[in-house]
Amino acid sequence: MKRAVPLATGLGVVVVALLLTRLGGNPYYYFAAYVIFQYVVLATAWNILGGYTGYVNFGSAAFFALGAYTAVVLILQFKAPLPVLILAGGLVAGFLGLGIGYLTLRLRGVFFSIATLALAVVLQTMVVNWEYVGGARGINVVRPAAILWFRTYVEFLFVVMVLLAVVSATVAWWLQHSWIGRGLAAIRDNEEAAECMGVPTLRLKLFATTVSGFLMGVAGAPFPYYVTLVEPASAFDLNYAVNSLAMPMIGGTTTWVGPVIGAVLLGTAQQVATVTISSALNLLIVGVVLVAFVILAPQGIVGLARKVWGGRAT
Amino acid sequence: MAGTLLDVQNVTKRFGGFTALNEVNLQVHEGERFGLIGPNGSGKTTLINCVSGSLPNDGGRVLFQGRDITGLPAHQRTRLGIARTFQIPKPFPSMTVLQNLCIPLEYAAPARSHGAPRDDVAAEAMEILRLIGLQAKADVPSIGLNQIEMRKLELARAMAAKPRLLISDEAMAGLSSAEVDDILANLFALNERGITIIMIEHIMRAVMRFSERIIVLDAGEKIAEGTPDQILHNPAVEKAYLGE
Asked: B233 CB near a chain A CB, below 8 Å?
């Protein structure tokens, strides 16, 4: 019974998104909303490693871009359909997560974060020098014709991203309430004590890096069809690394709902600012909001709400 | 004589050029109350880290119930039945006292599978808290505990791993005399339930009363072994503690 409620909510969100596209409206809204839901996926993915397990990943952009470039290769090679791109992007990025986890998780705390930052730089350099995917100039990808009953392909991508966001949030929700999530929390709280209490810390951390990487790759896979010009500077944009870290921090890192709230609020604010003020203002907004939250509400919005209502609900 | 539960054979541990443990041997028997003492920096906690798996040893072997566990990671040793407390309490601060106990109950206690109903786990955690005398604090965040409660939580959490061997690393440091008696009563009660206990302690009154057998470490070497009475009258021990 308890499990049925979130599943129904998730399904409801997807259906609403579908119905919205039937209503029409300004196509730009879907273009902007896609980005917001993409950040829901990224923030949720980041939080599985950063919030649940306590390992801060500065290299989100690397995983995102790896998903995007995996998709580019598959489009160039096979004209693979979108579901295949998403799955493959996730798998490749998940595999990178497993590998980087295996290499670096013996490093604790800040050293792990530095390693992930280095990873992003290395990967970007490789892509810049890889002619097949366009190198530094980037590459044009031709969108398929609009499919099913959608007016435009972007509207279709919007619904797909909503679905991916719901799947990510469901995974995070399930993790949080499972024995794995409790083990991850023990690692975050005190790794040595967790290990001595029977928690297989290395295996659980590898699991977290893999799932987190997989979801980031999933978020990046539809990116080529969304922008149609994929170039390293935008795929590895600093925004991805900063936002996927800032959104969970603002929403609250210990629950699945924190990153969702953070991504929706901050993502929306950024989209609005892009249109009304300037597109360069995004990072400034993130910076200011993040500093404010770290000082005033270190537990994020979820923590703030708990303090106000005094409850201990999920 | 009861069977040997823990058999430490020639265990050596070096940190760079410093030898923290030099070919230490000891046997702990099933059901025994065993004391491990020595001056500061003598290698007691290092030895415990090598037994529990927190640190790899550089030489020698560790056998538990006749099985060679050298090289096993700590979490697997815990599942086999070795649980420890930490000298400086290391609770899981984001969790309540009860949730702290649920971690070992779910992960370490051998009879349990991960699929066990949550209510059962919570009930079992509550039972352990009652045994230790911490039931009133079950739903309190573990960072809100005072010194003695923190020590009790360490003990309770180690108990929740359902150990055959419990290693108590200075569970009484910094406690008042009455509180020491309180913890001591806890440890006696656990021993009566069949759990073998290794006690590391600086409080002589406690360790002498508790232990059936004691070994003394000094500068990484075992310098004495015997009953509390023998240890008290051992000239080498006196020298290690007081100097010549």
From this structure: no
CA dist B46 and B43 (Å) reads 5
CB A118 within 8 A of CB A103: no
CB atoms within 10 A of CB B192: 9
Phi, psi of B225 (to 5 degrees): -150, 135
Q: Could you tell me if B102 lies within 8 Å of chain A, comparing CB atoms?
A: yes
Give percent of chain A with pLDDT exceeding 90.
50
The verdict on A179 touching B (C-beta cutoff 8 Å) is yes
**Helices A153-176 and A257-276, axial angle in degrees (round to 10):** 150
By mean pLDDT, which of A296-300, B99-103, B140-144, B205-209 is the weakest?
A296-300
Answer whether A205 touches B (CB < 8 Å): no
Segment B74-97 shows an average pLDDT of 92
Q: Which residues of B touch A192 (CB under 8 A)?
A: 54, 86, 90
Range of the domain at B67: 4-90+164-242
Tally of domains in chain B:
1
> Would you say the C-alpha torsion A138, A139, A145, A147 has a positive or negative sign?
negative
Give the position of tokens 């951390």: A205
Confidence of residue A167 (pLDDT cuts 50, 70, 90): very high
Of the two residues A33 and B244, the one the predictor is more confident about is A33
pTM: 0.89
Helix spans in A177-222 (H):
179-189, 191-196, 201-220
Question: The domain that contains B196 carries what CATH number?
Answer: 3.40.50.300
The pLDDT, as a whole number, for residue A310 is 66
Chain B CA closest to residue A52: B94
DSSP, collapsed to helix, strand or coil, labels residue B166 as strand
Residues B154 and B84 sit within 8 Å (Cβ to Cβ):
no
How many other β-carbons are positioned within 10 Å of the β-carbon of residue B124?
A: 18
